[in-house]
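Throughout our pipeline, every protein is held as a single compact record rather than as scattered files. The record that follows is passed on verbatim for readers who wish to inspect the format.
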Amino acid sequence: MNKESRRVKKSGKGGSVLTKIRSIKAIDIAKTGIFASLIFLSTAFLKVPIALGYIHAGDIVIFVSCYFLKPRYAAISAGIGSMFADLLAGYVIYMPVTLVVKALMALIAGVIVYKKTDVYRLVTGYIFAGLFMVGGYLVFEGFYYGWAPAIANVPFALIQPAVAIAAAVPMVLLFSRIRGIEKYR
């Protein structure tokens, strides 16, 4: 008897263990793809240009995705969605940096807020994640553009996570109060 048939034989009510594992992975993949698309769209089309880039609504969706997705899936959707928005905007040089910075930003926020969604955790997680994002781009821009313009851009760069936090916290709190929403997490 091989491993797969043993898994199926161990099944009880509700189908085989193997079927449950596959369905969980499928739903995680689907939710990750949906959030990557939403992050891409909100980053690419809801933006305001600033000195070294742009401020966008994508971080709001990234923070909301940390409520609905496990941290690793939120990181994947944030990195991919944001990276492709940079490609569309013509910021090709930022693509690898964005992939890493946004993925780690979502991972930081997700680890802090996924299990428990009180106001303190949301604000704390999002602040740490936002500061990491600003710091990550500061380091890249410091080496790429020089430290003077990179440091001069920091106050403008801080606007983006501040707006995202102000919008995402009430949204997540509202989502958390919807009856039955837990089954979509």
Summary: Residues 16-184 form a domain with the Arp2/3 complex 21 kDa subunit ARPC3 fold (CATH 1.10.1760.20). The chain has one domain: 16-184. Strands lie at 47-50, 53-56. The mean pLDDT is 89.
